[in-house]
Design a protein that fits this description.
The structure is a homodimer of 334-residue chains.
Chain A (H helix, E strand, L loop, with lengths): L4 H8 L3 H8 L7 H14 L5 H8 L4 E7 L10 H15 L3 E7 L4 H10 L5 E4 L7 H8 L4 E4 L9 E4 L1 H14 L5 E5 L5 H16 L9 E3 L4 H11 L6 E4 L2 H14 L8 E6 L12 E4 L2 H17 L7 E4 L2 E3 L8
Parallel strand pairs in A: 1-2, 1-3, 3-4, 4-5, 5-11, 6-7, 6-8, 8-9, 9-10
Antiparallel strand pairs in A: 10-12
Helix pairs in contact in A: 1-2, 1-3, 5-12, 6-7, 8-9, 10-11
The first copy, chain A, binds a DNA duplex (30 and 30 nucleotides) through helix 2 and helix 4.
Chain lengths: 334, 334
DNA sequence: CAACGGATTGGGAGCGCTCTCATAAATCAT
DNA sequence: ATGATTTATGAGAGCGCTCCCAATCCGTTG
């Protein structure tokens, strides 16, 4: 039913080869012939069979996007959709398509196999939250071009990231400069680089201001609302007067705990979040937070991947985007 | 570099055909032979080339997921990730893969071409928000198996949906039964079926309770926070004592408008939202809302699609999931 | 004992495309 | 005018798989 190269060739009175040349932009085609063929293609709405092309040529114009499904937090805040949107924009612009893989542990081996040996992908973008993600490991050992979203502490891989260290630092410094004495933090999971880096930023800010790092003012969360709520309850007895929460979703949970405990924000406890999710501006009080350019991050990843596919042997490349502190009322600065 | 059927065949001392049979679960294989072949496959981590299989057999095990990118609201609340997650779960379980397409208007024609003529897809799930989505139209005219998420008022197509009419009805009735006299609504866009149905539910509830439908108590939003805020400001002069807001994101906006105007919730104005997004429980006051089983909806869509792929000529099938009213404080019922 | 049938297996064709090579036509240098 | 080079096109092979048909083997049956 669908048309083939041969059909187009017949209609344009040329050979299959010539049609192929036209489609792939080969320069060795007579201008007139090209016009003729392009005409037929447009008129019949012809689309070359992707599978056949893939088989014959090896390249496919399809990139994989791998997201670990274990991270439930990803599905409660808009990080993930924004990321995808950024990637897809860049994809559309470069005439590529995306295959999506949510890797649940049960299917991990299959996913790896399909990605590496299925022969369908030109490259992969992997939003690898856990540092020791098996898919990442497999990818790293293979020669499949790929880009990691979020830097990796040990592996020498291509990545794009936001400057989480600096972001955590900015947030904490802001609270410190406002005169807060006991600045606590609810961190992200310490097996994810974003969680680690934001926490390191917190530590460095304390150091820079000559404040002691009090272990009782540090609790680890996992980016979920629930863990923010519990974290805040753990923190409360130690009387913090400010908290840097490593993402907005946890900040919402923290806010709930504070509200229940009758603690006023920002008077008694100031709060700074991270992400600037849309709801942040509309919390009560509006949340001061660190904004990260998530859409841009996705687009940057895609651009980098295309570059790597084009130039497979180039040295690993990194791209780090900056964050911005959005001051609202929860930090009590105004 | 990657292995082929032929390689496996050689190692197992059988023919390419036999290996193919084993892989595809053909019963006409000697038990012993099967074991032997499966062994080699497992040992070498062999994965048949998807492109080649697709080319030879026509079927691919890949389904397309089409989401119109125009709908910005999709990216501010977790509807979309939850949907994807539901679909992917069903996909993993059935050994299928997903290609993702966000259709921006600029690339619509290309997307349609690739989906229909690329030869790579076994079927398509389309979350068609606008009723007159061109991709939907094209799909409907083609013989590509597809399932629509959200029913369609005119087209006879396969779909899964939640019972938005009933949901809107339940929410409105709840307010009415609480004794509210002037129940307003901020609707979703009236070119999306979800927006339409929830509004119809509102109308039917009024009717059932013999309340007049007052046009000044109805404003149309577009599912964004901003439109909820503006909608509420439009409504305020007409002194509603309750509002059914067609999604939680708009409810957050409405809440902000009420807060700014110094109107107390739920004392002066009661509020019910729709979606039960995770933040809903943590707003101030916690939001009464209609919960829909989004993940299940995605899984149901995938299951239906698999069914249709298997039985292409069966009559169109529909599946409607029910909603649940989650009562919290914003409706003032307790 | 020849003919027969089912259970297994192997081989060939072909899916629609790209790529290399051969050919033909056109251009250039000598 | 002849050979050499460039430009434009076509033909054939082959990517890795599935599917169909033929071949083989074995146990049955008349």
């Amino acid at each position: 039913m669908p048309l083939t190269l041969e059909d187009i060739a017949k209609m344009a009175h040329v050979s299959r080869s010539t049609v192929s040349r036209v489609i792939n932009g080969d320069t060795n085609v007579n201008e007139e012939t090209r016009k003729k063929v392009e005409d037929v293609i447009r008129r019949l709405n012809f689309q070359p069979n992707i599978a056949a092309r893939s088989l014959a040529a090896g390249r496919t114009g399809i990139v994989g996007l791998v997201i670990p499904a274990g991270v439930t937090a990803i599905f409660t805040d808009p990080y993930f959709p924004q990321l995808i949107q950024g990637i897809m924009k860049a994809c559309n612009a470069s005439d590529h398509s995306v295959m999506l893989w949510l890797t649940e542990a049960d299917y991990e081996r299959r996913v790896i196999r399909q990605i590496l040996y299925g022969g369908l992908l030109s490259g992969v973008i992997i939003a690898s939250n856990p540092i020791d993600d098996p898919v990442l490991q497999a990818l790293h050992k293979s020669k499949m071009p790929f880009v990691l979203i979020g830097r990796h502490p040990n592996l020498d891989v291509n990545y794009v990231d936001v400057d989480n260290l600096n972001g955590g630092q900015k947030a904490t410094l802001h609270l410190l400069r406002l005169g807060r004495q006991r600045v606590a933090t609810i961190t992200g999971p310490q097996n994810m680089i974003a969680g680690i880096d934001r926490y390191q930023g917190y530590c460095q800010a304390l150091q820079a201001m000559n404040c002691p790092l009090r272990p009782e003012l540090v609790v680890e969360g996992d980016f979920t609302e629930e863990s923010g709520y519990l974290g805040m309850r753990t923190l409360l007895p130690h009387r913090p007067d400010a908290v840097f929460v490593a993402n907005d979703t946890m900040a919402i949970g923290a806010l709930r705990a504070l509200y229940e405990a009758g603690v006023s924000v920002p008077q008694q406890v100031a709060l700074v979040g991270y992400d600037d999710m849309p709801a942040a501006a509309h919390l009560n009080p509006p949340l001061t937070t660190v904004r990260q350019p998530i859409g841009k991050l996705g687009a940057a990843a895609m651009e980098m991947l295309l570059e790597i596919i084009r130039q497979p042997k180039s040295p690993t490349s990194h791209r780090v985007l900056q964050t911005e502190l959005i001051v609202r009322m929860s930090c009590g600065s105004s």
